[in-house]
């Protein structure tokens, strides 16, 4: 059974097991929900929230009582009517004790009437304000997020917004705003489309470090042993991305161009912070160049905290990570955290700069950030490694969809938290990859640049993305967005291929098997590959109907036929292939996924005559998972082949960049070669930093 990490944060982990290093993680399984109905049975449509008041700026003074878990706050909020005139404003505030509310009138603070019901503060202003006419109110309050009641005040224990943590006598405090939880510790308007600037004045005991969005404007020491740090966020960003963290952290400094970077960790992990987060400058450079849109924020901090409620969170300029990023050098060597780091960073364009206007449009944040993992792997490790990651994304979605499939962009969820799933993350990422394949790299990244440029610091819906792609490509892409983003499911194809000698043509019969009562009949551009007498040809076809036949003239039967060269991972295919077909697929492979499928077949059919030669070739491959498969089947090889491969195996054990390959090569040396054959490299092997290699040695 798939275990779903219940998360409202940008990084959703879907795993089949829990590693001991993951820290405290909360898991919840959701029942499948496709249409949510109210008590009267009417279908629910979750429209974007109306924007009646626009918060321009929040100045917040906060201090904390660690024993009672109280937050003492004073919030000065500058706001204005969005368009229609109004004499009141409504703020979200969960579980507050409100002392008084004031409005600045004629340069003085005057108390104004208010009501506080159902976590909503309704404030009566001194007059009716017109569109774009600003006013300032001040709220003095105490917030007690620890006392919020699950099921009544909040959806789950992961929604308290602010958490006091004590670990071995050391205090930490951190916030988690997404989806609508920052109103648990300061009054605001909880709407993903609401953007503001802010200044957070955080008063703490002198021994603590603080972190928030934007830059540290000043730090003032007080005579009572406390200090106030003032963090200023000058660019508008979504309310849910506002954050603060407090604790005893070590700070590791870094830099990209003129952008300061800092890594906050506990003291015990400060020595490896640069190793864990050290690719951040290269990621910033890569993403900025690829998008032709330089990182748009003044700094970037990353902090690792205890007992975080999910994997990580992309708060603007200050991402928070769970304790799984507290790594030793050996742990980092075997399981680096580049995926989650790249994911949060890519959000700073997709989600932070351009934000989904409603939770229904959450994939505009999460699909892109998840695909950012692929892009970084493709750049850093090569396309083969990235394709393996994409394949795992597709498998995660298929496993999830067995019980709870839904549209990618959906307005009928029962609760907004259900948007944080393998559909918004993994399926959405694969859809973006397929869109990139469809339009080509130049058009894809030009369209993203246009999308970011047109919508910077704004909130958007899926059609803004479609229109950007149509403007760049000159193509109507409504069909693509409709079938992939606005429908659930995926195509299931039955593919029959045969050669008609009489007509001298290759015949391809394709049937769509999915239930078209609830899943669309897909339009699928497909490329076929044929090999005849070592001559390779590619043929484009367009599937548009439930059943179709395609014919390609050939004077003789092709030696090899590959359906779907681009390997659309969201298509499930029923296609009869012989052992010879799988052998040729491995030998003629266009990419890693072709080789992966072929070697997976021989992994299950080891007695096939083609199996041993394929595994022998696998050892020489460039894709590390293929090499591992070859090494795992080393027992199939005879003594002569093993003797020939000794130098190669020693080289893999010593120099392969992937520790999983080095460890498997060490296992081969120990099992199939006398110690004398590899004694000359034992000293170097023992110096390997990898825990996997050391385990293989002992």
Q: Please, how many helices?
A: 19
Major sheet description:
8 strands, mixed
Radius of gyration, CA atoms, in whole angstroms: 28 Å
CATH homology-level superfamily of the largest domain: Neutral Protease Domain 2
Q: Which whole number gives the mean pLDDT?
A: 94
Low-confidence stretches: 1-8, 13-36
Q: What is CATH's topology name of the largest domain?
A: Neutral Protease, domain 2
CATH class value of the largest domain: Mainly Alpha
Distance between the termini: 33 Å
Shape: globular
Q: Percent helix among the residues?
A: 25-40%
Strand content bin: 25-35%
- Summed up, the domain count is 3
Q: Architecture of the largest domain in CATH?
A: Orthogonal Bundle
Tell me the structural class. alpha+beta
Q: What is the tally of beta strands?
A: 31
Strand order of the largest sheet: 7-6-10-4-3-13-16-15
Describe this structure in a few short sentences.
This protein is of the alpha+beta class. The chain folds into three domains: 1-47 and 265-488, Orthogonal Bundle (Neutral Protease, domain 2); 53-248, Sandwich (Immunoglobulin-like); 490-576, Aminopeptidase N, middle-beta domain (Immunoglobulin-like, Sandwich), CATH 2.60.40. The chain has 19 helices and 31 strands.
């Amino acid at each position: 059974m798939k275990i779903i990490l219940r998360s409202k944060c940008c990084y959703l982990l879907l795993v089949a097991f829990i590693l001991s290093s993951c820290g405290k993680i909360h898991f919840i399984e959701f029942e499948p929900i496709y249409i949510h109905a109210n008590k009267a049975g009417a279908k629910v449509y979750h429209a974007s929230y109306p924007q009646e008041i626009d918060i321009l700026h929040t100045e917040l003074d906060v201090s904390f009582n660690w024993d009672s878990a109280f937050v003492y706050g004073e919030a000065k909020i500058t706001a204005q009517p969005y368009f229609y005139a109004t004499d009141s404003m409504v703020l979200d505030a969960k579980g507050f004790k409100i002392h008084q509310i004031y409005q600045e009138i004629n340069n003085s603070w005057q108390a104004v009437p208010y009501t506080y019901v159902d976590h909503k503060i309704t404030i009566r202003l001194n007059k009716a304000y017109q569109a774009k006419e600003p006013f300032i109110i001040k709220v003095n309050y105490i917030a007690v997020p620890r006392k919020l009641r699950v099921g009544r005040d909040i959806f789950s224990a992961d929604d308290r917004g602010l958490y006091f943590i004590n670990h071995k006598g050391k205090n930490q405090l951190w916030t988690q705003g997404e989806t609508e939880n920052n109103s648990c510790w300061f009054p605001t308007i909880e709407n993903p489309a609401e953007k503001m600037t802010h200044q957070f004045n955080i008063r703490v005991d002198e021994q603590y470090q603080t972190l928030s969005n934007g830059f540290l404007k000043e730090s003032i020491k007080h005579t009572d042993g406390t200090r106030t740090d003032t963090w200023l966020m000058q660019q508008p960003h979504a309310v849910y991305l506002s954050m603060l963290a407090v604790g005893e952290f070590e700070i590791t400094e870094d830099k990209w161009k003129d952008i300061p970077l800092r890594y906050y960790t506990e003291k015990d992990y400060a020595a490896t912070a640069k190793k864990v987060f050290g690719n951040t400058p290269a990621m910033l450079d890569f993403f900025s160049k690829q998008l032709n849109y330089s990182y748009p924020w003044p700094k970037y901090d990353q902090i690792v905290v205890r007992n975080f409620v999910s994997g990580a969170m992309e708060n603007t300029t200050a991402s928070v990570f769970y304790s799984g990023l507290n790594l030793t050098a050996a742990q980092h060597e075997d399981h680096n955290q580049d995926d989650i780091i790249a994911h949060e960073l890519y959000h700073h364009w997709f989600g932070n700069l351009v934000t989904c206007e409603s939770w229904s449009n959450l994939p505009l944040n999460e699909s892109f950030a998840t695909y950012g993992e692929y892009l970084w792997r493709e750049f850093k490790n090569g396309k083969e490694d990235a394709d393996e990651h994409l394949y795992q994304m597709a498998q995660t979605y298929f496993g999830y969809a067995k019980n709870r499939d839904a549209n990618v962009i959906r307005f009928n969820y029962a609760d907004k938290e259900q948007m944080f799933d393998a559909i918004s993350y993994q399926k959405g990422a694969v859809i973006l990859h397929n869109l990139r394949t469809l339009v080509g790299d130049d058009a894809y990244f030009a369209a993203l640049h246009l999308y970011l440029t047109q919508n910077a610091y704004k909130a958007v819906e899926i059609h803004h993305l479609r229109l950007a792609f149509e403007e760049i490509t000159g193509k109507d892409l409504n069909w693509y967005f409709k079938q992939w983003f606005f429908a659930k499911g995926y195509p299931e194809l039955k593919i029959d291929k045969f050669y008609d000698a009489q007509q001298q043509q290759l015949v391809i019969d394709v049937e769509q098997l999915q239930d078209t009562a609830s899943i669309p009949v897909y339009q699928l551009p497909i490329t076929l590959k044929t090999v005849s007498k070592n001559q390779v040809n590619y043929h484009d076809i367009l599937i548009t109907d439930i059943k179709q036949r395609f014919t390609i003239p050939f004077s003789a039967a092709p030696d090899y036929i590959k359906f779907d060269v681009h390997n659309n991972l969201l298509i499930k295919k029923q296609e009869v292939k012989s052992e010879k077909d799988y052998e040729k697929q491995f030998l003629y492979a266009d990419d890693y996924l072709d080789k992966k499928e072929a070697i997976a077949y021989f992994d299950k059919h080891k007695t096939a005559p083609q199996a041993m030669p394929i595994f022998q070739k696998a050892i020489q491959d460039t894709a590390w998972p293929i090499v591992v498969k070859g090494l795992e089947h080393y027992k199939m090889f005879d003594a002569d082949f093993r003797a020939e491969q000794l130098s190669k195996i020693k080289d893999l054990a010593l120099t392969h960049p992937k520790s999983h390959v080095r460890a498997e090569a060490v296992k081969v040396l120990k099992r199939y070669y006398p110690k004398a054959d590899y004694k000359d490299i034992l000293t170097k092997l023992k110096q390997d930093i990898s825990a996997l290699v050391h385990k293989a040695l002992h």
